[in-house]
Amino acid sequence: MPRAGGVERPSRPATQAMVSLATDIVRTADGVPLKVTLRRVDRARKLKAVALVVPLFLFILLSFAIPIGVMLFRAVDNPEIAGALPNTVAELARWNGDELPDEATYAALAGELQAAHKSKTLGLIGKRLNYELPGVRSKIMAIGRAVTKIEAGPYKDAVIGIDPMLGERRLWTVIKSAGEPYTIFYLLSALDFERTQDGDIVNVSADRAIFRDVFLRTMGISMTVTLATLVLGFPVAYLLASLPARTSNLLMILVLLPFWTSLLVRTTAWVVLLQTEGVVNDALMLLGFVDERLQLIFSRFGTIVAMTHIQLPFTLLPIYSVMKTISPTHVRAARSLGAGPFVAFWRIYFPQTVPGIAAGCLLTFILSLGYYITPALVGGPTDQMVSSFVAIYTNMELNWGMASALGAILLAATLVLYLLYNRLIGIDKLKLG
Amino acid sequence: MAVAPYASPVERAWYYVFRAICALVLLFLIAPILVIMPLSFNAEPWFTYPMPGWSWRWYEDFFSSDRWQIALQNSIVIAVSTTILASFLGVLAALGLSRSHFPWRALVMGLLISPMIVPVVITAVGMYFFYATIGLTGSYLGLILAHTALATPFVVITVTATLTGFDYNLARAGAGLGAAPARVFFRVILPLILPGVISGALFAFATSWDDVVTVLFIGSAEQRTLPRQMFSGIREQISPTITAAATLLILFAVFLLATVELLRRRSERLRGVRV
Fold this sequence. Notes:
Chain A is mainly alpha-helical. Chain A has helices at residues 11-23, 34-74, 79-84, 86-92, 103-118, 122-132, 136-147, 155-162, 169-178, 185-190, 211-242, 245-260, 263-274, 279-286, 300-324, 329-336, 341-369, 373-378, 386-395, 400-424; strands at residues 193-195, 201-203.
């Protein structure tokens, strides 16, 4: 059937053209096929682009990613006992755990404790075992001193004679598991789990459980702060987006100035304001809202207020930039079609702001999870978040396995949310200022 | 935004209530900054109003005390070095990342931005362990490297954003007229993206200038910076000199904000976007 226009395509010349295309490849001036040249140019460009990124990529890898990787490794690394008691650990590999270890194992332990006492490394052994058996540290020190008096075997009864604990399976189980090259002990402890003598994973007793509470508290504070910034930020973002440019630019300064002011300065300001003899309490007394001064500093309330203040611009700005793109004609159309002001807002305007709300809230939630300085200065002991415990275990307790395990869990949570943010919003859409 | 002529009385009422709510939130944002500034001129070491008198004594203390002056110098040295290093690395990377068809762009970008997202304590502890093994803890170099890692994401983000509106035909025209790639960069590309580069550099400066966590972990007493000095001041015995330091930092933030805003408006004008 002839096509529109009635011209039937002549078949022979077309075939000829195809043949000639196949033989006469388009070439550049130097005789190389154009396709190859183009591919080469493309590859060269790509290489150049990659070469520009390589310095920063390597820098971030070396100064940031690898240090964090090494830290994560510390969460499972277990070098102390394997290093200090290598022979005992080797002997224990044969031990089935049902009864007490044999004479050779006791002899190895006695020999190595004597050596540790001489080289003054008993403290390290005691400290490591103390993580799993609280209170064992001082006993190990005493055993180490006493064991030097044993001059010849048989060792088993002599060693048990020093401390009956050495005649119990519990200590040996702990030495065996602490002697393995890798351990999940720290990660389990960071979630308030422990292993029993038989290797079952159970909850730690209620009086020793702290970390689940800390993680829940961190989530709770972050969620409260996120919600507070949304409730406070949304109306202001709407106002700024709907005012004429001159006024909104002026008001924007009020949002951006805190954003540019150092976090520590803003935290200091809150520390000063929230003092029991401070400005906020004075104002409350003056206005007659309270009869006696409130404990605002070192409290959960103070922490949340200060964090909300610091995070507010992070939630507000993404919402504002989305609102800027919403055409006011939509709401006007809805109104002219008979929608009331609330319905027009809720059904027409609000759904369009959701991407901004998601971006702002997710960013604030992610950043809130890692807060350290503000709770440390404004909060009380029960308002400290995960980061504080990472810092305490690093600087004060010097239990780096525990610090790393807590850090690993916090990092995992942050990275999952970061991936979600990247998927939903795209990190390159992040706007600053 | 004004009340529409057809608005009902409830709408009119809501209009004023809404504005009052917004005014309260804006007051909440700015009040702490406004309250702390006058307190730094208090004649007595109290943190409340009414103030018995005005004096410059806390500023005199700030400028005459060795501890604060060394902290100020350390902050400047570390922040300036960080800014230079972070801007150099960040601008190069942004130029590469904004070329079309960059391989694994999302993944690479995700890694390069991650220092901004990872909790600072985790970064600081990781660096503390790692830098200790290579002898970088307690050194200026260690702190500058740490701050550079934290600051480059800001440079990458700002410069990449500026480059998305960049017309590469201009660079091609330069090359077509015989300029070598370096000359094209310095004479064509850089002047056009300069506002973004400066904004990024200021963000990098502010990141280093504000940081206290990495200084706590990998700095020694010798590298005490201004925020570090303030931090220990608040922890131990809060002295009004801290409010003087805070006020100076706020004035500096005003300067940073004004510069960035001017640059943003200038670049919007250049690109023909209505301010």
